[in-house]
Amino acid sequence: MSGHNPRSVWRRKPLEEMEDETVKSGLFRSLGLWQLTAIGVGGIIGVGIFSLAGLVAHGDADNPGVGPAVLISFLVAGLASAAAALSYAEFAGMIPRAGSAYTYGYVALGEITGWFIGWDLLLEYIAIVAVVAIGISGYLDAFLGGFGVHLPVWMTSTVDEGKGGIINVPAILICLLVTLILSRGTKAFGRFELAVVAIKVTLILFIVGLGVFYINTNNYTPFMPSGFGPVMSGAATVFFAVFGYDAMSTAAEEATEGKKHMPKAIILSLIIAMLLYVAATLVLTGMQNYQDIDPKAGFASAFTGVGLPVIASIISVFAVLSILTVMLTFLLGVTRVWFSMSRDGLLPKWFSKVDRGGTPQRVTWIAGVGSAFLAGVFPIRAVADLTNIGILAAFVVVCVSVIVFRRTKPNAPRTFRLPWMPVVPAVGVIASLLLISQLHWETWLRFVVWLVIGLVIYFAYGRKHSLMNPDSPRRLQEASLRG
C-alpha cells in the first residue's frame, strides 16, 4: 500500500506541490480572518436553531420527541464536532488549499481515499443546501400565514410528506437565488456573508434575551421524556447543525493569509456557535412544552404560544435571511471541492474553468440546480440524514489523516498543532462512528449506492486522468504545451 508507486490507487499527493497549485489556481485571495469566521458561523448557525432544534425536541412519525434534552443532543454533537474541528485546524494551517477533507485525505491516505471523500462531499454539500432550502420554505409559510396568506399545499410540500403536496416550489426558488448570489464572486459573497452573519447573531441574542422572560420552568419536566436512546439519535440529526467550518475550509485558497487565519477561524466559529446553541435550546424548550413546538418553525411557534405573534413574524423574516448564509457556505463548499477534484484530473478539466472574476461558474450552477431538484422533491429529514452520514464519514477520514500525517510527516511546518495527540482525533473517530450508527438503514443504502457510482467513475475516468498518473493524458498534454 505504497504512496510512492505512481500507478497505485494509494498514491499520495506531495505536500510540496500544494503551494505551487494555490498560486496558479485562478481563485482570488480576498477573505480575511473575520470574513472566514463569518463564513464558518454562517455555515454552522441557521437551520440547527431555526428548524432542527424544534424537530428533534418535538419528534416526528419515526422518532419520539426528546423534549428539553435536545440540549444534550446538541452538546454530544458539538463534542464530536470539536474533535474533528481541531483536526481540520491542524490541516488548514499546513495546506491552505481548496478541497478541505478531500485534499487532506489525498495527501495523507492516498488518492482512492481522497476520491471517496471528495465524491461523498459533492452529494453531502448539495444535500445540505437542499435541506436548508426546505427549512426556509417552512418559515416562509409561517410568515405568510401570519398575514392570512396561505400558499397552495401542492406547491409547498413533497409527495412523501403525506399532506397532498407535489413539489416544494419556494425551496427550489431559494436554491436558485443563492446560486445567483454565489456566482457574483467571492469578494461580494464574503461581504454579504459578514453583514448577514452579524444580523443573525444579533437576532439570536434578541430571541434569547426576550425569551428568557417567558420561560416556564415546568416545561423542563420531564427533561428526557423518551430516554437516552432518542437523545443520541437526535444528536445524529442535529450534528448537521454543528459543522460548517469544514465547508469554510474549502475556501482556504481565497484567504489572504490561509495558514495563519484558517485554524483560528475554524475554532472561533465553533465556539461562537455552540454558546448560541446552548442558550437558544434552553429558551425554546422553556417557553413552550416540547409537544407543542412546531417542528418546522420552532421559535415562531414558541413566541406565538406566549402571545407575541408580531415577534414570531419578525423571527420568521430574519430566520429566512440568516439561514441563507448556511446555503451560501455549503454551496461555496461543493463548488470548491468539485473545482479541486477537476484540477487534480480526477474529474474533467471543463469543471475547473473559472471566469475573469475567479469564480468557477459551471460547477456553481450545476450544484445549484442539483440542490434545487433535491429540495423540490424530498422531505427534510431524509435529506438531513443523507447529509450527516457523508459529513461524519469525512470527519473520520480527517481525524485518521491527522494521526497518520503526524507519523509520516512529523517535521512538516504547522501553524497550529492540535493538543493531546492522538486522543483528540481518536475521540473524533469514535464519536463520529457512534453517530453514524444511529442513522436509518435507508440512509446507509443511499450512501452506499452513491459511493458505488463514484467507484465506477474513478476507475473509468479518474485513475487514468489523474495528474498523479505519469501516463495521464492531461499531464502529457500540459507537458507538451510547456515544451
Overview in brief:
This protein has 483 residues and is mainly alpha-helical. It has helices at 15-23, 33-44, 47-58, 70-94, 101-109, 111-146, 169-182, 186-211, 228-238, 245-248, 258-287, 298-305, 309-343, 361-377, 380-408, 423-436, 441-465, 473-482.
Number of strands: 0
From the N-terminal CA to the C-terminal CA, the straight-line distance is 34 Å
In terms of quaternary structure, the protein is single chain
Poorly predicted ranges (pLDDT <50, ≥5 residues)? none
Q: Percent of residues in helical segments?
A: 55-70%
Taken in chain order, the helices and strands follow as: HHHHHHHHHHHHHHHHHH
The helix-and-strand class reads mainly alpha
Q: What Rg, in angstroms, do the CA atoms define? A: 22 Å
Shape: globular
Average predicted local confidence, pLDDT: 84
Query: In DSSP terms, counting alpha (H) and pi (I) runs of 4 or more, how many helices?
Result: 18
